[in-house]
Structures are given as structure tokens and as C-alpha cells.
Amino acid sequence: MSSMSGEWQCTECNSLNAVHEDFRDDETGHISECLDCGFMDVYREKTDTGKIIEDYQGHKHYYNNEKYSGTSLLKINNKDLKKNGWTVVPDGVWFGIDYAESHKTNVLALLTDLLNLDTDVEGYNFLVCAYKEEKDDE
Ligand SMILES: [Zn+2]
User: Fold this and answer.
1) Domains in the chain, number
2) Segment holding 18, helix H or strand E
3) Which of 20, 38, 66, 71 has the fewest CB atoms below 10 angstroms from its CB?
4) What separation in Å is there between the alpha carbon of 104 and the centre of ligand 1?
């Protein structure tokens, strides 16, 4: 196991609603993030050369920035997902369901089609990462 997650107390606001991860694979370091005030403490260095990739403490880290194209390293992260046995759908798939029509929709059948799932298994777990309210005028 090359990475370890745990609880963390924010050094800025003392909130316990914060997470901490130590990792050591091709990079060594830690990431701490306060889920209340958004403070992040990030340290990453190359394991082989010891070269510092990133050393940051503050509230404006790019992981918290909407323009950053990935997702938070502590939450939905492709590498961590794969490590935990999830199959990542690189381009994602989307589908919509109306409450009025939902009784006609078999979500598992829909996802089986969308993802070309193997049906010779007991079932699947899904991880939902986004949703949007359907508006009448769209
Ligand atoms: Zn905080």
C-alpha cells in the first residue's frame, strides 16, 4: 500500500472536517485539505530524484479552482479509483430520467447499453460524479 488517508485538523481554522493523504509511489508527499475553509497543504516531490514538484499552503490551490480540468486528488481521482478496482470511463457517459417517466426506465439496462457492460455478472456498482436539474425550457 503506497498511500494512506486519514483525518486531519485544519491548521488555519482548526476544523476537523478535513482530510489528509500521504503517498509514496513515483511521487512522495502529502495533501491535506480542509473541507470547511478550503485550506490546502500540498507537498509533492519526485521519489527517485527528490526534486520538489510542488510545495503549497493556502486557500487558492488550483485543485479548488473550477478551471482545473481534473478533480480533487482526494476525492474522484482516476488513479485512486483504479487502485480501488473501479473501471474509469474516460469520456464519461450521461443519461437523463424524468420523474414522470422513471417507472419505464431500467437504469441498469440503460447503463449496460451505454457502457457495453458484461451481463454475465451479479451486478455493478456505479459512482456518480455529476448531475444537473432538467429544466422545462431546455
Ligand atoms: Zn480550515
Assistant:
1) 1
2) strand 18-24
3) 66
4) 45
